[in-house]
Specification:
- The protein is mainly β.
- It folds into 2 domains: 7-151, Macroglobulin (MG2) domain (Immunoglobulin-like); 153-253, SOR catalytic domain (Immunoglobulin-like).
- It is 0% helix and 54% strand.
- The chain is built from no helices and 23 strands.
- It has strands at residues 7-10, 13-16, 28-30, 34-40, 44-47, 53-62, 67-76, 82-83, 87-94, 97-106, 123-133, 138-141, 146-151, 153-155, 159-161, 170-181, 186-189, 194-201, 208-214, 220-226, 231-237, 246-247, 251-253.
- The strands form 5 sheets. Strands 3, 5, 7, 8, 11, 12 and 13 form a 7-stranded mixed beta sheet that branches. Strands 14, 15, 16, 17 and 20 form a 5-stranded antiparallel beta sheet that branches. Strands 18, 19, 21, 22 and 23 form a 5-stranded antiparallel beta sheet that branches.
- Strand 21 (231-237) and strand 22 form a beta hairpin.
Length: 256
């Protein structure tokens, strides 16, 4: 079992924090304290049902009087759930700046019930941190720095047939879209989703969308098209605010 510490990083040390999520509001500040940069190692984290995913956040704050500390370093989910860093470290690049690095591990199958992801936690998360200056100025990041945490989606390899098929004859194309259920830790059919059927003609390097098909009550896809030329068929899902995009492996069909 991985033990997670509710941690704040200040001057390179770790201090315990209460597990309380503040209400979201705009960033606030006083004086000339500011965050000069905040970077995420990934803009989107797609999490499946078994493999944990990590993301690193690096923030640098500056004040002419010097930074006394950067506190917080929490990721807050859409349901106000807090992800605390698994590790945190801070340094002083100059007399007026402090740089902190936080690493987070996001897991839908964590042995720690608090850290375990649930379906309601998919969506937009934000970084919560505060830089305090030696002259009592401060800058609080609340909701302005965000990252997407999404449920991982899968598309079954595209199947098109019969093969070979006569020119002008009917070709049937099938597939299936599933996504990670963080509550049950299985992949389940993603229903009522629009998925693009794409075709790449033999000798071409680009796919084009032929039509859009909606998944059925089990996440399955099935449609028919007229075979005009040899090439490769595939399904492509653009994703949603809570679910990752995914492209299926293609199936080449020879038209006689």
């Amino acid at each position: 079992m991985r033990i997670r510490t509710a941690a704040i990083a200040a001057c390179g040390t770790l201090t315990l924090l209460a597990v309380v999520a503040p209400a979201a509001h705009a960033d606030s500040h006083r004086g000339d304290t500011r965050f000069t940069s905040v970077t995420f190692s990934r803009s989107t984290v797609n999490v499946g049902v078994s493999a944990a995913q990590s993301v690193t956040v690096v923030a640098t704050a500056k004040d002419d009087s010097g930074i006394s500390g950067i506190w917080g370093g929490k990721l807050v989910g859409p349901d106000k759930h807090i992800a605390f860093p698994d590790s945190a470290s801070c340094s002083r690049p100059s007399s007026t700046t402090m740089k902190c690095t936080w690493k987070y591990v996001l897991d839908a199958n964590d042995s720690d019930d608090y850290a375990d992801l649930t379906n309601g936690r998919a969506g937009t998360w934000h970084l919560d941190a505060e830089a305090a200056a030696k002259d009592q100025d401060f800058y609080t990041l609340d909701s302005s720095r965000t990252i997407k945490v999404k449920r991982y989606a899968r598309l079954a390899v595209t199947k098109a047939g019969p093969e070979p098929v006569g020119k002008g004859r009917t070709l049937t194309v099938t597939g299936a879209l599933t996504r990670a259920n963080w509550d049950t830790n299985v992949y389940a059919g993603y229903t009522s989703q629009r998925v693009a059927l794409q075709f790449k003609k033999s000798g071409s390097s680009a796919y084009s969308t032929v039509k859009t098909v909606t998944t059925d009550g089990k996440g399955k896809l099935r449609t028919t098209v007229k075979a005009a030329s040899s090439g490769t068929w595939r399904w492509k899902f653009s994703g949603t605010g809570t679910t990752s995009a995914v492209t299926a492996g293609g199936d080449s069909v020879s038209v006689k």
